[in-house]
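Table S2 (continued). Query chain:
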Amino acid sequence: MRWWAFGFALVCWAARASASPVQHFAIVQEVARDGNAPVARQDEFLDSSFYVVWPRQHLTLTLGSFANGAEWGGYLRDRRGSTYEMALRRRQNGWLSDTALDLGTEQRFRRTVLGGGVRAFWPDAPETSNLLLVPSGGVQVYYRNESFVSLRLVYDPRPNTGTTLRFANRWARGHAFIETAIAPRTDGVVNWSMQGRWGYALFGYGHERDFDFSRLDRRVWSFGFQYDFSPAP
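Corresponding output:
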């Protein structure tokens, strides 16, 4: 409970300090268990994440035992509705300690969105290189107002991993959505997830092996809420 109180207070301070109006605010609790943890090692992780979205920028604060840290990001939008994005993240004092810089773009063509980007990733305790470059690309095809199918490819440069192909379908209507995804990897690992929203409530479950450049085999439950002050521009 103290994490929620501290995170909520810090995010509220950031929201008040900004000159721009807040558009979205969310709190999500994750409960994760490592399916391959040996007996003597920690196998359960609790993380609380706080999300604030302003016009063309966002702040995420995560407090917990897995990914303790913060991320700030922003984007520019052109006349066609395409976006050009950047995000900077730092995590430490949890299971993961690293710094990451994300650069990406989403190009809109009527009902199709083509995306691509690269993550520069500096782990504090590297397996191989001090700097990992992680390219990604994908496509979204909308079949109704906010519902779409997508394919995303992400290359993991670490040894004994591979390229992930994530297939997803999101059905959305108003303040509700259901998204299911399956993410096979070229080395034989298959991850999957389901997440959704109903009104203010958020929920999800997923199997995430080697998630976010860790070596954990995570089973993750998540729940929380989101409040929308205004629609996205």
